[in-house]
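Hi R.,

Here's the input for the heme C complex you asked about:
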Amino acid sequence: MAKSERSLVVPLLSGLLLLVSGWLPPRVEAQGQSMASYVAECDAAVGVSVPGFQCSGGVTIPTTNSSGSSCDRPNRLNRECDPDSKYLSLVSNSSVEIVGLCRRKGNTGNNYGDIAVIQHNKNTGATCFYQALGLLSGTVSAPSAGTYPWLSPQTTASIECFHCHDNGPIIRSPYLTQVGLLGSGDVTFNKSNPYYFVGADFQSWATYSVEILGNICNSCHRMGTNNSGGCPTCGAARDLGLRATAASEVSKNPHSATSPIWMTPGATTYSSANDSQAQSIATCAASARSAIVNGQSLPNTPICKVWKYSSNSIQSRTYMPTQITELSVVWLRYFTIFNRIPTARELAYGARKLQEGATIPQLDAFIRANAWFSSSTILR
Ligand code: HEC
Ligand code: HEC
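And here is the predicted structure with heme C in place:
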């Protein structure tokens, strides 16, 4: 809106800026993007294409001390032990991570019941999701080949991966941290790293950070919630965090040294203090739900602060000329409002707001809403 209004007022200047910056208005695409087009967009945004793979080439996810339907580390998706499933780190370099998971769901040999891939750029946050379900071969062709029974982007989007994957791209459950999943034991992960969703069918997805000043669950990573219609009560803040600190979990052996409680790291047994910290986060997230879906102002006090941290419209573009302009605008706004210079993170987030089309009053509101924690010790 704001952009087209402005370009009516100063068409020449805007035209020049667009030309100089290489900025392109967001494409409006019909629902139901083709797989080929999704893959092309994802590969351009993330930087490395998803390769084909053999599930059997992955790491076998251990099912230890299994008795009946319980084991030390059941998976948290289906809350079952599901032996002989495979985890694959398909690509891992300084900017790109591509991970695959072949869930058996009772199948054997070269057959699996749920094969999923997440393609992520750590620097820009660009993230893509690929899913196959049903009786599947463990010989998986690349989504770019288009042949494997990959679900269409639209069908994948309808599963709403983000309603659970709302703490960042990767959910680090004990099921997968036991095989060294990306982010295992990393207290800088899912904290302030960027996250956004590529592809026309994924543009309604948004994730939010839930913060309470001094809450222990905010000290190593964010606690995420989301705008899902499918499962509002899923996600890190409202579901996974509660399960991670509960006295017991479905299909999990009683907490002990060999079957430790999920959170916090290093703890083995239940802590009512941690449980109640997680409950407070869940209550704060639940209280934000209607504001999230109705676009109203979000809770913003030290005892409950919720803000959207994912961004839908940032592409991995190079636009130095506008970026310098944007950074100086943000710098000036921080100086005007708080009489201090912004942190690097605040600068980046503010510039991003402008790139998304925010007006100066909207930017000011964003700055005010997101400033208190930057001066606290919780997040930097
Ligand atoms: C109902 C919650 C839920 C939904 C919806 C969901 N996931 Fe997950 N996913 C999980 C959980 C929990 C894990 C962690 C492994 C475990 O314990 O099961 C996980 C793990 C993964 C992993 C392994 C890497 C990681 O994050 O740990 C991939 C890949 C993955 N999911 C892909 C997808 C894709 C693609 C979709 C959407 C089509 C999706 N997931 C939807 C809950 C969900
Ligand atoms: C000392 C740092 C630390 C604290 C404190 C902490 N966590 Fe975590 N959390 C982690 C790490 C590290 C992981 C990754 C799993 C692992 O390595 O054990 C994680 C993973 C998680 C996940 C999975 C989602 C994700 O980001 O991968 C949830 C949910 C979670 N923590 C909830 C909580 C809750 C609830 C609390 C408060 C009681 C809490 N955490 C406190 C470090 C911490």
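One thing worth noting: Residues 31-316 form one domain.

Cheers,
M.
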